[in-house]
Specification:
This protein has no helices and 11 strands. Strand 7 and strand 8 form a beta hairpin. The protein has a single domain, classed as Galactose-binding domain-like (Jelly Rolls), CATH 2.60.120.260. The chain is mainly beta and about 140 residues long.
């Protein structure tokens, strides 16, 4: 199935703000998380069925150091202090992709900064889910 796109500027933002002062983003902007430990963006994504979710996070990090963030799904950290590596400048975007078990229906995906440098700028999250069941023959 095609990925569903969830714009960060439409997600729940705690200690940060939607901004648009750099180029190359999707939607109306991106989220600039405050440069502190614990700033977060939480996406609510819909899974058509329980299975393996693929989460592709588009971000920019115009510094020279990785910006680590915990990725939690429904309150469980599935990728601790995940490194969002430098992207040359704030107008250059990269995608970090991981997989995680998800339940059918609504799932909460939260990215929380774990360093005082805060989050990378976040553009969107693309989400797809595949069933853990065997595909029927075609
Ligand atoms: C700059 C940049 C912001 C970014 C910030 C940071 O201020 O313009 O978009 O979020 O650096 O270091 O986090
Ligand atoms: Ca910031």
């Amino acid at each position: 199935a095609a990925a569903a796109r969830y714009e960060a500027e439409s997600a729940t933002i705690v200690k940060g703000a939607a901004e648009s002062n750099h180029s190359g983003y999707s939607g109306t902007g991106f989220v600039n998380g405050d440069n502190v430990v614990g700033s977060y963006v939480e996406f609510t994504v819909d899974a058509a069925l329980a299975g393996t979710g693929t989460i592709a996070i588009r971000y920019a990090n115009g510094t020279t150091d990785a910006r680590p963030a915990d990725v939690a799904v429904n309150g469980t950290v599935v990728s601790a202090a995940r490194a969002f590596d430098a992207t040359t400048d704030w107008n250059t975007w990269a995608t970090s992709t991981l997989t995680t078990p998800v339940k059918a229906g609504s799932n909460k995906i939260r990215l929380t900064s774990t360093s005082a440098n805060g989050l990378p700028n976040l553009d969107y999250l693309d989400f797809t889910v595949t069933s853990s069941d065997t595909e029927p023959p075609t």
